[in-house]
Amino acid sequence: MEKPQQSGSTEGRGEPEQRAHHSPHSTPQNLLVVGTETAVFEHASSVRARILAYTKSFREVHIVVLCGPGYTPEVVEGRVHLHPTNSRLRFLRVFDALRIGKKVSAIDVVTSQDPFETGVAAWLIARKKRAPLHVQVHTDFLSREYWNLSLLNRIRVFLAGFVLMRAARIRAVSDRIAHSIEEKFSLEVPITTLPIFVDTARFSEARPDEALKKRFERFSFRFLVVSRLEREKNVALALRAFAASAPQESCLIIVGDGTELVMLKGAAKQLRIDERVFFEGTRDPAPYYALADLVLLPSRYEGYGLVIVEALAAGKPVLATNVGVAREAGAIVASEDGFAEALAAWVSEGPRTAILQDYPYRNFEEYVRAYCDDIEKSVEVRG
Description:
By secondary structure, this protein is an alpha/beta fold. The protein contains 15 helices and 14 strands. Strand 5 (109-112), helix 3 (117-129) and strand 6 form a beta-alpha-beta unit.
């Protein structure tokens, strides 16, 4: 079996240049992407800009988005076709994606943005078009915590196994995911580790907003959580650790929103820390990183851990559970049971600054090149 390939190796990458382009060994392909990011239909969104940047390496691109009603098909620059499924019912999205894919005349490779329902749709299209299937994995779906979270997650584990065993090539966003796939399935296809791109310069150059500084200047320590407020993010652990170990003159700032907001506010009140916990909602995290003394990431599982990379790029230490790239990126790693104790240890003698380690990309163009090369190599595997 081919071992997972590191993003820092020559596999799938080359010397950085000022623009994304094809690697010397390949020619432009007709690409079909299956995903769920409806923000691609928003003209000003960063998601649209990122996705369209990938497409410049291919002759023609069709992007099929599994979604509910209300989105308008679009052609961008004459060669990028955006196809919403506009499905009336959620379970119909896979079939609507297949219906759209059948109508595309020429497909050289199909890539799926996950191995779950999206992956099934991509496999059906690839099978119909006799095209190689490239599968991306952003979630640590083989972790025990992912399995235990819900029945839907357990079903998705089985779907992922089915899809991955039919892939020509697999891209994982972390070594943790790549190795878990290799150990579980013993696949005879290449698995490449290509982390998510983070604009590290934006966070390293960020400065605290003056209004934020004034709001929180009375606190000696400012702890920060940047997260969706959902069950798998385990933000309640940060509240408990803060209540148990943080000095009285400290505060906990929570940037993000989600279905657990009301529950977490209630938990803060029950722990008698509600006057020192601030729920900021969805905000640009950059000025909050600049303000923070320590960033907390208490997740049950992460595929990558974007917040870890952003915070370390800002020079701020991170206390995290053992998820995603926490250990290799340079975070302080603690178990759930030891999280409060680790927070107390940091207050006593922990580092006040941090350095991001082992981040592979020097710029966005280099990431795009590695990403597109990996997709193109799916055709080589097939050949």
